Each structure stands twice: as C-alpha cells, then as structure tokens.
Amino acid sequence: MPLHPLLINGEWRQAQAAADSFSASNPTTGEALAEVYPVSGWQDIEEMVAAGQEAAVALRQTSPETIAAFLERYAGAIEARADQIAQAAHEETGLPLQPRLRNGEMSRTVDQLRQAAAAARERSWSQATIDSEANIRSRFEALGGPVVVMGPNNFPLAFNAISGGDFAAAIAAGNPVIAKAHPGHPTTTRLLAEAACEALQESDAPPAMVQLFYHIEPEDGLRLVADDRVKATAFTGSRRAGMALKRAAEEAGNLIYLEMSSVNPVFILPGALAERGAEIAAAFYASCTMGTGQFCTNPGLVIVQKGARSEAFLDEAQRLFAQQENGVLLAEGGVAHLVEAVAALQDNGAELLCGGQPAEGPGYRFQNTLLRASGEQFLADAEGLQTEAFGPASVVVFARDAEQMVQIAEALEGNLTAGIYSASGEEDEALYERLSPVLREKVGRLLNDKMPTGVAVTAAMVHGGPYPATGHPGFTAVGIPAALLRFAARRSYDNVRHHRLPVELQNENPTGEMWRYVDGRWTQGDV
Amino acid sequence: MPLHPLLINGEWRQAQAAADSFSASNPTTGEALAEVYPVSGWQDIEEMVAAGQEAAVALRQTSPETIAAFLERYAGAIEARADQIAQAAHEETGLPLQPRLRNGEMSRTVDQLRQAAAAARERSWSQATIDSEANIRSRFEALGGPVVVMGPNNFPLAFNAISGGDFAAAIAAGNPVIAKAHPGHPTTTRLLAEAACEALQESDAPPAMVQLFYHIEPEDGLRLVADDRVKATAFTGSRRAGMALKRAAEEAGNLIYLEMSSVNPVFILPGALAERGAEIAAAFYASCTMGTGQFCTNPGLVIVQKGARSEAFLDEAQRLFAQQENGVLLAEGGVAHLVEAVAALQDNGAELLCGGQPAEGPGYRFQNTLLRASGEQFLADAEGLQTEAFGPASVVVFARDAEQMVQIAEALEGNLTAGIYSASGEEDEALYERLSPVLREKVGRLLNDKMPTGVAVTAAMVHGGPYPATGHPGFTAVGIPAALLRFAARRSYDNVRHHRLPVELQNENPTGEMWRYVDGRWTQGDV
Q1: What ipTM was reported for this prediction?
Q2: pTM above 0.90, yes or no
C-alpha cells in the first residue's frame, strides 16, 4: 500500500525521502491496520516551517471574520463525515464508538471549534487596552510564526493536533498551525485534515494555515520545537517526552506549553464517607475506569482516614473494580507502562488489592487495578507513590488522622486537579479549611464533591497547574477565550497614528460589542 | 567597618559565614565607598527561602487591604527619607541627583508602589471569571511561595529589587519577595529596605514578605532560582547572566522572567528626514545620551536611507554627540563593556565616527559614540551589528533603498521597542505599511515619531517583547495591572461551595467596583 501524503502548504504531497513508515494497530484486536503513513525526515518539516512562516505573514492581513468562518466551515465539514471519523477513531484507539466518540467527543470537538470561531470574531480575547491620555494602546496578538501542536493519543478528536483545543486556540489567535498527528491514530487525523483542507479551500485564509505530518524521528522533533521560526509548541503527552521537548525549546528561547502528567488527588473526608461512602465509591469507580482510565484528569490517588468507614469504602470500590469487564488500552505500550507503574507503586510500599496485570482477551487490555498504602508509606516516599499509572488504576492512601492528611497534601507535586469530598453539614469544615489552601496552590482546578474527569469548555475552566503537571501555571489548555492567550504576544502601540492602529485599538469600537479596557474601565463603547 | 546585616524574616541579622564582603564605588570619582556589605553564603539564602515559604502561607490569609496599606506606607516611608536615598543613589551610580534621581525616578518609584497598592485593593487585576450555570469560577492568584527579584544597576530606585516595578507587582499579587540588591548600589538598597521594614512593622503582613540580601556567589544564584520552594524569579540585567539563570530555573521547572538586552531600532523614513531631520537628530541625541545611555530602551540602532538628507542628519547628530560633556557610567565594568562592544561593532564593519574611547576625568566615563554602517554590511552580519553597546553609543545604518530597509527590519532580533519616524503627510505611508508589520512582531512596543526611552507606567504599556529581549512575549515588566500577572497562577474552583469561595468569586461583588467576567460580560455587578 502506498504511503499517505502529508498536508503541506495547502496540498497533499508525498513525503520526500521518508525516514521510515508505520501503520497504527487496532487496540481491540492487536492487529495492524492497513493504512501506511510516513515518518517524515527533516526535508518535509523544513517545507512546512517555511510555508508556515509565509502563512504567518499572510495572516497579518487576514480578518478575524475569515478565521472564524474557516473554523465554522471546518466544524461543519467534520460533522459531514462524523460517522467515518468516529469509526476510524474507534478502530485506532479502542475507545467506545457510542457514546464516547460519535457523540461525546465529536460534539465537544465541533463545539470547541465553534467557540473558538466566536472568540475570534468577537475579539474580546485580545484584552485591548487603551490609555487615551498617554495615547498608548495594547492588546494580545498572534505570535508571528507557526505554532507546532503535538496531540496525545487519549482524545483522538477533542485534543487531536489538527482539530482539538490547542489547534482551535492557536488558529483563533491568528497563528498558522503545524500539526503532528499522534501515530496511534493517523487515519482519524487524516480524515480530520481532509475536512480542514476542504474548509481551507473555501476560505481566504492562507493555505499553509493548517499543515500536517504524521510522525517524526525524536531528534527532528527536538529540532522542530527549537527552530527559531517556530513561535510556540503545545504538547500533551508523557512526562518523559515532554521534558525532552521542554529542554530543547527553552534552550532555544522558544515557548512551549506542556501538559505532562497528573495523579489528580481526591481527599474524602470522614463526614462524607459516613454520609455517602458507597455513592462516592461508585463515582470513583466510574471516573477511574472511564475511557479505560486514560484521562489526564483520572483520579489516580485517593486519600481517606483509616477506620471502618474507609475500609467499607474501599471494599465497595474494590467490588466494582473487580466485577467489571476490563477495558481496552490505546496502545500496546500502555500495557507495558502500567505493568511498570504498578510494580513501581508496589516497590514503594503499596499493596495490590485487585488487578495489576494485563488482562485476557485480544488486543491491549489491562485489569482494573486498586492499590492501598498507609499515610506513613506515602510520606516516606511521596515521589514514588505519586508515580502516574496511566490507565484504570488508583492508589488509596489511608492517613492516620487529619494531621497526616494535611501532610500528604503538602507532599504532593503540582497536579491538574485536586478534589475534596466533605459532609453536607458542618462536620468536615475544619479539616476542609486546613486542606484546601494547601491543595489550592498545587493545582489548576480545585473541586468539591465531584470527580475530576469532566473538563467543561467554559470561560472559567482551568486545565493547567504548576510544574510538573504543566510548564507554566498562568495558562490553561481548556476554556475559551483564556486558552488563546498561550499563542499570543502582548504588544503596545505608543503614539501610533490613529489610522495606522489595528481597528480593534482605534477609538471606535469595531464591532460595538467587543470588550476593551479603556482608561481603567471595561467597556463595549467607543473611546 | 562592620558588615551591614541582611533583612531576614523581619529582622536585621548578621550574615552567617559570609562568603566574602564588598563595597560599592562612586562612579564619578572611582573611589571606593566606606560601607561594607556581605556576599552571602547559602546559609543566609536558605533561611530567607524557608521564611519566605512561611510568609507565603501567612499571605493566604492576608487581605488585599493589608497588602495595599503596606505598599502605601512604604511609599510614604521612602518619601520621608527621599533626600537621603537619592543622595546615596547619586553617590553609588553617578546618575544626576537632580532632576533624574530626586525628582524623576523617585516620583516614579513611589507612584508605582501606589499604583500597585491601588491594583491590590481594587482586585480587578485577578480577572475573576464566573460561569454561573456550570458553577466554575477562576481567577489569578499568588503563586504560593517566595518570588526572587534581581534588580539592575541602571534604575537604582524604580527598578530596585526592593522598591521597583517587579517588587511592587510581585507584592501586589500577594507574593513574598526575596530581593537581591544590585551590588553597585547597596546603600541605596539598604535605605529603601529600612523604609520597607518600618512599613512592615506597622503592618499585619507577615514579616518575611520582604527580605533582602546584597550579593551572592554565582553558583548560589543558580541554586536559588532553581530551588523548588521559589515560585518565580524576575531578573533584569545582562544577557550573559540572564541566560545562565534562565537555564538553571527552567531545568528545574521554575518560572523566570527576564529582561536581557535590546538595541531598540529606530527607522527614520525619507519624508521625516526631509521635513524635520535636525529635530529628530536632537531627539536622538537626547535619548541616546540620557542617563549616559544606560537605558534598556536606549536607541542603539538607527536606520535611514542613504542620501544627502541622511548625511545631514548624521552630521547634526555627530555635532551634538561630539560637543557635549561625556557622562559617568554606572560601573567600571561598563567602560570595559563599551570598549569591547565598540570593537565588536567595528570588527563587523561599522565605521567609528566619534567617541569610542573611555573619556578623560576621574571615575568611569565613556565618550559619546557614533558609528555608521551600510545596509549591505548590516545584512552581511546582522547579529554582529546588533551587538548591544550599553551606554551612550549608537550605530546608524544607511540602507540602499526602501527594500533594504525592510530587509534590515526582517533581520532584527527580538527587542523591547522599535520606532518609526515618518513625514506628517502621506509620502512615507507606503514604506510605513511595509515596515510596521515586520517590526510589530519583533518588539513589545512600537512607537511613532518618538524616541523609546520614556516608559510610562500606564495600563496599556508593554515593556517586554520576544526572546532574546525577554523570555516570554506574553508579559510586561511595566504597566499596572498587567505586570502583576507574571507572579500569579490561573486557578479555577469547580463546584466549590459558595461560602468556601474567595470573596472575589462569590456572587456578591466584594467591593462594588471590582471588574469581573461573569457569564461572558465584564461587570462591576453581582452575579
């Protein structure tokens, strides 16, 4: 079978001197899929970077309306082939077709693209600021060069490098994107790219605004993120790969936004366990095994205080974990990763309660897995017991008392989320007040009475957090318009003649609805 | 003379096992000043970091009003000893006492502290965002640990690590600061710290909210910015030191904001030269020699098109540069740096027109210096001809034509500012339209018809830009409230019970005046 071509500068082109080729496999069966894709050499990448740079120049003159219209056409083009795309994603990732891919993730994906379109059109994201007396005006603007997006395997649509949140945010802010497919789902990505290409052809946007390659040698990946024409990279994936890319980009002075790892600790306070332990166990089970546990916000660490009620909670959780069918993992490597992670957790003192092994059946499967550890064990090797087991696995830590719960909170690394379940009345309030300030500074999102797996795309969402969960706690990867700011530079115009200003900074409000910060007040009015 | 003590956890304490000691010198005379200060070993730094971490915990419970009141008391305490502080700064930096230090910079400094106080009290800086239906609420919050501020030599008050813009922004956002004095002006810094200490004693803020050391071994500096208890560093200084700190901080996953170097290109278009060449030459001269040229926004590179009018412009500039008294540099090292930088520019093809040598007289002086180069020379070694000569020195580049002016713009590195002078009528408009988009993406601030040295402290100011001018183009070091965002994390509260939310995220607007982004609208109202 011939190699599938790359999307370069608006055209589907054969890879030049591809370093290698690859096929994805079907995780449900373990069989290789038929389509063959190139591992690009630098020559392909060089063409994309050069074309991306030209696209960035053309984008200076491209209106927000053109960008918004592209994003909306693209959402429509995805919907027109939604069945085909969802089917491909199902075959390549093993995630359930219904409702996960065809309904949930598909809706989320087109909704994100449309929200990004609305933000681009509405323009308030740019935080236009006008000091009329000094005649200094500023806003956030596109970075001025291509943005590289490297997507993860676990959301083949909603975080796909060519259709997901990072893509939508970078485009809406006015940047060209060079998308690197995740090699686990190249056909899904190609079908999305075909939709993007169709939408681009009907658009006045520059053809190289959206480009795609499928795979790359690691050293070329490092070279790409460090290239001085590339203005930023967004990476979602493993800590090991993320750290190597971070170093390469930062040594070159380039921006990189990383979402690397998180165990998403959930603290369940005694009053909550007394009141609704079984209900929380069911929520925990559902959250930990959803998508076979392969969520960046999977609850991988649960902290309770020891006693009869927490034992009952764990018994109930264990019953649920053990009785259910084992899910399919995204890739063969996921099985090996989980074997290694569970062994590391056991080496660091955790006791295996159920699961812990690759599961029977064709394809890549792993048993639902629960481990337990004491608070003393956790504090003795907090790093080891925070090893991320990316899949349907979680460690339940039994703290000696409230004091030790707080110490455990203090020993946590940076995470995306932390949650606290407490009684509906007052009895957990004192402990909540001790725990929450400690957890607050360790995470981007603090939850009450709720598992962390749902990440709503709303303006106030923060999907981010301190290192090593991400590279910078001031940004979010989900939530529009805030996610756009990762791909923008803050720029001011000092004494620039009025007719030369971007219309968004001129005295008249360009849409009559755009929010601007004028002389110390947010307003939709004119200056 | 005994060593001056350090400000640690609210007390003046002798350095423990100081690695060394030092005295500043008077740049006007070259003579050593009498006061002796410690070069701290790690033991002192360790105490400050530990105390800073405790202060961050206490700051979780400290109201914005307490922080604002501290900043205002501190501004008042500085004013109460303004003569003494300005005199010390004059002796230590050689900058003119009047009007520069006692009037201009002193006013700017206390004004910045008061603006930061107002921002802390007003709270809109935190961009509180509420999605009422999903019950997700977010805002920017203090980072949760000490911020290290390392100030430069060239603004001993307004960018001093313990009184300048970075300090004010970090404190207003709710962070404790560990200030590293610039060793060129320790007594100025000590007097400021005494004022800060007095204000702190009258405050309910934690005593370690403001700490100070004077000097440090380079390896301890790298260790400090990489310490995992330190949440961010703000550095203003040389590219060499900045790059070493950047690497150390980023390898540890720590935030660092850098302001490193900038030549601030000024393009003077033909129509502007025809219309007001002599006037622009005078503005150029004044801007380039102000503060003996030691401004981060000093116009170190001027680009004109060759011809009789640009020769006349240069003749006039040269006449002004040559006739005037040579200024005093901040430090002995500045003389050697300029000798080296001018030699590098000459090696790269620039012709020396005037100055270029250390100047006569006591102390550290350098001649006003002008060089010229052709557009061809610049394009042949753009990096070499962008060598920063930090002082009263500038290179004038004669482009062959409009096309070459654009090529020169394209060859520029990231800078803090770029300026364009054009005719008051239409004749330069076509060239402006070609140049400005290229320059726009290279700088944080684009100016028209104005030299870059004035940096107003207003909301729309951007004192930042792409690497290597800074480390991240999304931030500004000047301008309140935006400068605060460097020292804050974006954090969301998902389903958190209403009474547990920070008052700023509760339904009722806590001040009746705070701007919040509620359900897609900026408002001062309640939810």
Answers
A1: 0.97
A2: yes
